[in-house]
Amino acid sequence: MSAPTSAPMMSACDPILLAETHEGVRTLTLNRPQARNALSVALMGALQQALDDAGADDAVRVVILAARGPVFCAGHDLREMRANPGAVAYEALFTQCARLMMTLVHLPKPVIACVHGMATAAGCQLVASCDLAVAAEEARFATPGVTIGLFCSTPMVALSRAIGRKKVMEMLLTGEPLDASTALAHGLINKVVAQADLVRETTALARSIADRSPLTVALGKAAFQRQIDMPLEQAYAYASAIMTRNMMARDAEEGIDAFLEKRAPTWCGR
């Protein structure tokens, strides 16, 4: 994964989404820098397909979501939206976006956002929907729809599940951006690093997860998402059943044996 740069020269035949895989980590890079990586229908479709492919590929252990150019993602493509007005088109667009965000949540592989520059509206929603996020010191996060008469209702869904209610309401009602340190303090991101270290730090985090049992990671991610909205008693009952299922897996046996024998485990994914 190359470091984000200023907007490169592009031709009409350049792909709007780049994908590369190295040592179990698949990096998906938004590649509409001259449009501030706005989520057009085509870009959302390409990202949806790429995530579906990554979820089905046993060689992929972790996904990194990155972007080229000075902006991470400016949200929906407003020019495209205004060129295709009407309730039917808007409903289809937001349904497509909701499916994409839910795919990030339910993908059996962890997804890490690698954020530089601005992440606004649906771009901020992307970050909030990922499992983890590493951001450059210069990164900013905002839901500025209210300033143009369009409340960020769909980004609100992801943000309200990632950070506290009052901070989310402040973002939604004012449209003012959070700097990286504030986003870190409120739990929207996991780590703030120097711009020069962003790719290295994000890749190191991804590879540390890629070294774990893929079965255990997939089981754990799904369990986390399912239990989070359960009542406490139900959550413990569910988690206990998952722990029992996990203990019966061959990878758990291997991991425990390797720990007791002071050796590195060999995962089989079952």
UniProtKB/TrEMBL annotation:
Coiled coil: none annotated. It holds the Pfam family ECH_1. NCBIfam families: PRK08139.1. Belongs to the enoyl-CoA hydratase/isomerase family. It comes from Pararhodospirillum oryzae. Keywords: Fatty acid metabolism, Lipid metabolism, Transit peptide. This is Enoyl-CoA hydratase domain-containing protein 3, mitochondrial. It comes from the Bacteria. One of its GO terms (molecular function) is hydro-lyase activity. May play a role in fatty acid biosynthesis and insulin sensitivity. CDD domains: crotonase-like. One of its GO terms (biological process) is fatty acid metabolic process. InterPro entries: ClpP/crotonase-like_dom_sf, Enoyl-CoA_hydra/iso, Enoyl-CoA_hydra_C, Mitochondrial_ECH-domain.
